[in-house]
Amino acid sequence: MESADIPELRVSNEVRNDIDELQRRLDEDGYLFFRQLLDPDRLMKLRHEMLSVMQAGGWLVAGTDPMDGIADPDTRCTEGDLGYTDVYHKVYKLQSFHAIAHSRKILDLLEEIRGCTMMPQPQKVARLWFPKFTEHTTPTHQDFVHFQGSEDNLTCWTPVGDCPRELGGLAVLRGSHKVGRVLQHRFSLGAGSLHVEPSEHDLLDEWRTTDYQVGDALIFPFLTIHKALPNVSADRLRVSLDNRYQRAGDPIADHMLMPHLSSMSPLTWEEVYADWQDDAWQYYWRAYESPVWPKITHYMEQAFDQAADLARQGDARGRLHLHRIATRDAMSEQGQAAATILAEIDSASAGRVVD
Question: Where are the alpha helices (DSSP H) in the chain?
Fold first, then answer.
């Protein structure tokens, strides 16, 4: 189905104060969508800060207005590339980027829906996607395979600036949370490297999306299947936020206490906070004393094994995945395994050429 043919999300602004109806819609649809729930002016200010950092990092065409987000195709990269985290982690250090997750507009709503205090998870996430990089679009998945911890988490996705369909906003599979379990995921390129096929689980093809406006918010639980639409714009970056929330005191996975992508390129909270103007929101999660659970690693281990098998079969996607791991994690066990597999493939290929 083309992006333009996907039906519209149901808007819930008119029932914002009817908590029973919001809970019913969340249970029925597996999402809630609000127009301009967050402050558009605040988000546009954040957009300027984020894109100015990206322009200084070489991602935007020199001399253009950073607010336009005109991407330089020669610097195209994505999660998993060291060139991506070089710039991404500079964006990540912005105090304003972290502060958005603590907006009372979103916290009040989630606390009313859940009937308790809600905590933004420490690991905030930005999605910065280059145009015409379709093979790296975030694949169809459930959030639990990546973020784990409590099974009562909620994700809030919001664009930083208007995000029409062509720019690659989020689409959710209506009612897919009713599957009631974490489904089998397979290797894929794109953020997270994991993909699920809804048709294998008898899920109806009920995708929903919209032309997002700055300040819009899409909220969904950990089992709702969703994906990014491809950024098919001529030259614009898509900038959005993924913030996740859990009941205060619920378990949290240990990797969610670390800055995003710090496992790929080292980054500490001390480095994140170094230039902040005050200590607001620094280490705020420690006050909740949430139990910390170890990360479940088998999802990514399965993806690695599948990528390795594909690489051995000559699949360029599998080879690229292994190359990225071998490059960024050269000293890790998986990085060394990736390098060994690539060397074996190259050796076998060279032998065939000689024969």
Answer: 19-29, 40-56, 82-92, 95-99, 104-114, 144-147, 269-273, 298-312, 316-328, 333-354
CB 191 within 8 A of CB 226: no
Structure-block tokens of residue 126 = 């930005």
Q: How confident is the prediction for the chain on average, in pLDDT?
A: 94
b/e map of 78-90 (b: 16 or more CB within 10 Å)? bbbbeebbebbbe
CA separation for the pair 150, 144 (Å, rounded): 9
Phi, psi (degrees; rounded to nearest 5) at 47: -55, -45
Strand partners, 173: 207
Helix ranges restricted to H, 224-315:
269-273, 298-312
Spatial neighbors of 134 by CB under 8 A, at least 6 apart, are 230, 231, 232
Task: Specify the pTM.
Answer: 0.95
Tens digits of residue pLDDT in 239-292: 999 999 999 999 999 999 999 999 889 999 999 999 999 999 999 999 998 999
Which of 140, 346, 104 minimizes the C-alpha distance to 245?
104
Residues 242, 120 contacting (CB under 8 angstroms): no
**What 8-state DSSP symbol labels residue 6?**
S
